[in-house]
Records
---
Amino acid sequence: MAGRIRAVAVAVITAGLIIAGASPAFAPYARTAAEAINPTEACPKYLSLEVASMAPDEGPNGPVVTIQAYAPASSVGDPAALVLERTIPVREVEPDLFPLGEENENFGYHGRAVLPWNVGALPNGTTVAVTTPDAGGDFSPVTFSQRCDPPNLQLSRTCSTTGGPHTWRVRNPEAVAVDFNAEVLFTRPARVILGTVPPNNGVAEFTTQVPGPDVVVLFVGGIPVDVGVCLR
């Protein structure tokens, strides 16, 4: 029963994010560019990704970034075939993100999208280059996999009764360390927490302090896996 309630809560939060046009948090990125792409799931029928941007384009509904993907000849019968081209919204994030380590690049916007391939289902094992039009040849390679479910991280909390910080714990039952990403909902700009939780039931902690009800959504690879609420 607890698992069913958790799944329903995550589904409701996810639907709310989509309706509101919000963009979840994300893990560190694999490449350096004015837009840094973090592919999170590559399945035969779709690509799930996140993007950080320094200065996104301005679309009719706000800042946006255009995503492209190119497949080799063996995938679709055409060298460097463009198999995906979509524009996704991004929004301001606080604090600014520095996901590229030594490059120390400052990204003030982020977004997420699940994009269907232009040509439909591509063969399992195909490697595709994901990029943006102005990346100057910089790209992130992704390889399709049949395993498209995120690790089963679990979020717990100790809510303050005195108006102080709330303590959140992420538990990892998997056999490998996992990057997690949390976002405090209804904060503007978005408040983001990035971290890594050790394997074999390891635990990582972080704290939040937001006036009023505090809702935190836990993401793995940009996909919501759990949600928690502190009512004070």
---
Amino acid sequence: MREPSGQPMRPLLQEGIMGRIGAFVALALVFAIPAAFAQKKNKEDATTRSVRGIVESMDDMPVNGAIVQLKNVKTLQIRSFITKEDGTYQFQGLSPDIDYELKADYEGASSGSKTLSSFDSRKQATINLKLNKK
């Protein structure tokens, strides 16, 4: 049999198999790509840590809008976080092999500096900061 263009017609069985193979490959990609990203995230989680906490005023109230600074003691790089409404802050993706210093400032008040040590093996450290008048 021939198509109107004069070309021989392909057997329907061959087209059905090719369609199934294409669908299988597409389905495999749909599941493989997210798995690859999950492996990368899990690998990153295994090699990093994070720190979070609450900034409180002298009367133990959470402070919204305080600036928390995280200083890498090795490179002296500083990252900042503005506390949320409930006074919380967080820093993620930190190296477990480096010491970090944390301090908070808000409207002329500062907290003392606290250290997240490389000897602290917690994956999720909690360090609360309390503001004192200057």
